[in-house]
Amino acid sequence: MTSSVPITENLMKSFQASKTFKYHKVDSPITSIDFDDSGQYLISSGVDESIQLYDVNKGKHSKSIFSKKYGVHLARFTHHEKNCLYASTKEDHTIRYLSLHDNSYLRYFRGHRAQVTALEMAPVDDVFLSSAYDDSVRVWDLRSSACQGFMNCKAPSLISFDPTGMVFGIGSNNTNEIGLYDFRNYDKDPFATFDINVNMNWNKLEFSNDGKYLIVTDAANECHLVVDAFDGVIRAKLIGTKKFPNRNYPSTGSTTISPDGRFVYGGSGNRSVMIWDLQEIQKDDINKQIFPCKELNSDQGLPRMCLFNPRMLTFATADTAVTLWLTDSKNSMI
């Protein structure tokens, strides 16, 4: 039986690599990982055209689902148990809504004219956003195959909902801009636009759990940005990681935020996971350099992607294998 435990600084720094799953094709890049709302299940997708499902609570691999005809990228859980979305990589650019229970397709979302680059479920309902190399962001509802909204962008973009689901951000390193939108009026111009004049290759945009910051992750892993979500000022640069070896396939980003919103975890090219403490940021800081307050060492593979579990004291890393990281309170809820 699980029980809640208080989140402390020592606890958040005590993670250890616990179990590694090697169910994707050997040495085949994994491109996305995602937890479901309950935290019990994890999925990964890769260039081997498979989705792998894991039971986090039991520490076991559950099943393999293949999409050889269409390819697979950006597998994302919906709010419905064992249902997911994923982007096609072959034949067309359709987003597919899949039941992992019986491997049946529930719906198709057609409209993008180029490869989908991001999929994000709204935090509290059945709406989701997608962006693609056709320089567009689309709004969808799981209950209808029809596109609910369309936005032209200047370049391929990343997307992120704030914790309330009332605001979402669209950002791109091609324009060095982040625009914030009111979801109730997504057909209007952004209510705020931030210029981010830092030369880096973005591959993840994420609101902190308290909505205070936006974390912009650098694919080159040279530094990650902490942007004030209210005024767009770069409050801090998270540094101290080693570069990842180059590869030709995208990933869903090497940083993740702890449930209390205090710590950022990020993979490093030396196979470690770095932890940065956002409490080091003071009210008037600008471009403050923050070094890791803790380095978690592992020989379980490269942590090119990093994602925190929404409910349980665990996080996952992935590159060509998936690793779960646990604390001594591995059976506790947060």
Automatic annotation (TrEMBL):
Q: Which UniProt keywords apply?
A: Nucleus, Repeat, WD repeat
Q: Name one GO molecular function term.
A: histone H3K4 methyltransferase activity
WD repeats span: 23-64, 109-144
A biological-process GO annotation = telomere maintenance
Q: Does the keyword Nucleus apply?
A: yes
- Entry superkingdom: Eukaryota
Instruction: Give the protein family.
Output: Belongs to the WD repeat SWD2 family.
Put simply, this protein is called Uncharacterized protein
Naturally occurring in which organism (per UniProt): Pachysolen tannophilus NRRL Y-2460
